[in-house]
Amino acid sequence: MKVVAGSSNPQLAKNIAKKLKTSLVSCEISKFANGEKRIRVGKEAKGQHILLVQSFSEPVDEHIIETLLIADALERLGTRSVELFVPWFIS
Question: Using CB atoms within 10 A of its CB, is residue 64 exposed (0-12), middle (13-18) or buried (19+)?
């Protein structure tokens, strides 16, 4: 299993990868000139079980769409499976 971080909380994803004694897959998130997101996932995810870490904090709609785009990129790359970890903290 390898870990992929969305932009909502990359430090949490690093900590989870460290606790699981696995590596963090590179995931480049940028924007096109028109504001749409561009996702590039490292090839080391191919054939792997992936834990995608992304909280739905502010801006919620942007993080949800980003999560779907990352999952799509992982599927197109040929991962074995993708599990989504969505931490939700209420104070």
Answer: middle
Look at the domain 2-85 and name its fold.
Answer: Rossmann fold (3.40.50)
3-state SS assignment for residue 13: helix
Q: Report helix, strand or coil for 1.
A: coil
d(CA 66, CA 77): 16
- The residue whose two tokens read 């998130």 is 29
The full set of domain ranges for the chain reads 2-85
pLDDT for the residue numbered 90 = 56
The dihedral region occupied by 87, where left means phi > 0, alpha psi between -120 and 50, and beta the remainder, is: beta
27-84 per-position pLDDT tens digit: 999 999 999 999 999 999 999 999 999 999 899 999 999 999 999 999 999 999 999 9
